[in-house]
Amino acid sequence: MIRLEKRPQPSQLWTYLTPVLAVLLTMLVGGVLFAFLGANPVEAIRTIFWDPLFNAQFAGFTRPQLLVKAGPLILIAIGLSIGFRAGIWNIGAEGQYIMGAICGAAAGLAFYPSESFLIFPIMIVAGALGGWAWAMIPAILKTKFGTNEILVSLMLVYVAETILGSVSTGLLRNPEGRGFPGSRNFKQWDAAHNSDLIANTGMHWGVVFAFIAVIGAYVLLTRHMLGFNIRLTGEAPRAARFSGVNPARIILICLGLSGALAGMAGLFEVTGPAGQVSIDFGSGYGFTAIIVAFLGRLNPIGILLAGLLMALTYIGGELAQLMLGLPGASIQLFQGMLLFFLLAMDVFTNFRLRIGKREVA
Amino acid sequence: MHRRTLLSTAALALTLGFGSAAAAQDVTAGFIYVGPVGDGGWTYEHNKGRLAVEEHFGDKVKTIYQESVPEGADAERAITQMALSGADIIFTTSFGYMDPTIAVAEKFPNVKFEHATGYKRADNVSVYSARFYEGRAIQGHIAGSMTKTNKIGYIASYPIPEVIRGINAAYIHAKKVNPDVEFSIIWAYTWFDPAKEADAARALIENGADVILQHTDSTAPQAAAAEAGNVITFGQASDMIEYAPTPRVSSIIDNWAPYYIDRVQAVMDGSWTSEDTWDGIGPGMVGIGEITDAVPAEVKAEALDLKAAIAAGDYHPFTGPINKADGSVWLAEGEVADDGTLLGMDFYVEGINAEIPQ
């Protein structure tokens, strides 16, 4: 007879063990899936987790790409995790990411073709402001009218996507682009190009900001009064209120911060890896970052590792498609499994597995 | 600059390493797809082209592909990885891969690139596309002849010249046979999203459209039309014959296989050069799927005549007099549109009562 017994306190050990177990289980079940698809499971798992880092043929290119892919995920997830800690659910980071890219790109393009060194800093500020402003909409609606920030922020993603389509074909369209949608390419404009800081490392400004955000969030949550208030609001809202924490202020700070970080991620992406504002710019980073935040246990260091792991499955997944001919959908399934097992294993954080007869009290 | 040197050294090393093997037997041809290979439309046909290459060359050619590659920051990485994996020629099969293709091509001067439907070329980048508008003219003719409500719905993907050209070609030829015809256009902002496409089709049908034309790649609009009844559709990119004889009454079929075989052969022979290919019904790059019996015999005969005239080069679907939507003259009586204007088309022709989204 096997049964679950609730733990008085969530287990510390299991909190750190579950992500590792989830990854192992994903490898195991994923391997079975790949075997059914006719691939050698060991080879497939190796291609996904090992080759991007150590394969002689690819690693020189894919290792830096891990940072490129993980950078925006970590930056957005850090912002989200602070809100999630306070029980404020910003689901619309994708919209803030898009608006940050649009505002930042627009601020830069207004000065085209200036080569001033001030252009890029101005764009970063405009990008952060764009994301912040977009997040302020659900924040203000929540504090003034008590609306649900989950719904409002999510719906605003679709508004942002529509605006993206509009500016790509109108306002920000490249005047020399023969009528095709899409802005000028920032890669051909040095003053606005977010290039690798050290050539061939993938280390662009967005990755640097992601690392700074990890450290900043760590300090904020462990050493700062505001961080304590944020955690308190999430864990015991009534206690927080009694101790004089202003809930409206926490909402504005948390949503504003996550919006600004998402906006900056968008700006670094549009001036770097993406290169231009185009209809397809939104690539789902804002949604994937939610997974990263939870995979990292809402802990800054955890998010850093989770972001890198997520990037690894993306790039390794692409290699597996390329080298082993695995279908794209199987890779998505594989990534979904990771989240599924994480959530499933979480049961053991809060419950203990008992084998044997129930003791009669 | 440094990065470029490093990468091209890597590329060179690879080409050398693989070069010895390649000389003995094979060429590796890579394909980057925007949708899943099972989309039943655009990507499905490109993949058919890939399979035809495999069949034609047998052991001498190895093909690799990656499906559902987003047209954003991820494309450049996907193309680079393909080049690193030793591909000798890479076909990037969607408009949005244009800048990434050019960027990767710069780093891999020894790999040949072929970009579909774009306009940027380089010494190792060719562009190729099909004159789909020739097929749209025939579609427009059948649609205009058969509509009873005089309302034709059009599911458009992105406001790029290729799509606008298709709308104009279909409208001009529908209008010719039916002066009362009206077009309603829905922009889906996707190439492949069955749910969105089905919604668009249902909305158009509810507004009275009894013909649905689509420039998106899934069969969802066909299914929505079948469900509604009394609505006709046309297969897009692929024959979509499973929806015949109604709602699908005909189709535009992309036939990439001969082109792909040609280009791979050129790589094998060492005769590959950067080219700009834009072929239509005549050379067989655009096919017209079987016109079913749901179409009245005389309409079918007219449509086939039109097809023959276009194929022979006797008739160009954009022949004046045609005015732009703002009323200004575009083509005078008997004047034929030049390819430059067609490739950058960013206006509707007179009579289409809508705005191109901006």
Q: Give the assembly state of these chains.
A: heterodimer
Helix content of chain B: 40-55%
State the CATH architecture of the largest domain in chain B: 3-Layer(aba) Sandwich
Return the domain count of chain A: 1
Count of individual helical segments of chain A: 15
Which strand-content bin applies to the residues of chain B? 15-25%
The topology string of helices and strands of chain B comes to HEHEHEHEEHEHEHEHEEHEEHEEH
Second rung of CATH, namely the architecture of chain A: Orthogonal Bundle
Low-pLDDT runs of 5+ residues of chain A are none
For the sheet with most strands of chain B, the description reads: 6 strands, parallel
Total beta-strand segments of chain B: 14
Calculate Rg of chain A over CA atoms. Answer: 22 Å
Q: Output the radius of gyration of chain B.
A: 21 Å
The largest inter-chain interface, given as chain pair and residues per side, is:
A-B, 45 and 45 residues
End-to-end distance of chain A, in Å? 17 Å
The first-level CATH class name of the largest domain in chain B: Alpha Beta
Structural class, from helix and strand content of chain B?
alpha/beta
Number of helical segments of chain B?
11
Written overview of the protein:
The complex is a heterodimer of chains A (361) and B (358). Chain A has one domain: ABC transporter involved in vitamin B12 uptake, BtuC (Orthogonal Bundle). Chain A is 69% helix and 3% strand. Chain A contains 15 helices and two strands. Chain A has a two-stranded antiparallel sheet with strand order 1-2. In chain A, helix 5 packs across helix 11 (247-271) and helix 6 packs antiparallel against helix 7. Chain A is globular and about 75 Å long. The model of chain A has no long low-confidence stretch (mean pLDDT 90). Chain B is α/β, with parallel strands linked by helices and 358 residues long. Chain B is 42% helix and 19% strand. In chain B, the strands form three sheets. A six-stranded parallel beta sheet of chain B has the order 2-1-3-4-5-11, sandwiched between helices. A six-stranded mixed beta sheet of chain B has the order 7-6-8-9-10-12, with helices on both faces. In chain B, helix 2 packs across helix 9, helix 3 (73-84) runs parallel beside helix 4 and helix 5 runs antiparallel to helix 10 (297-312). The longest helix of chain B has 23 residues, at 2-24. The two termini of chain B are 37 Å apart.
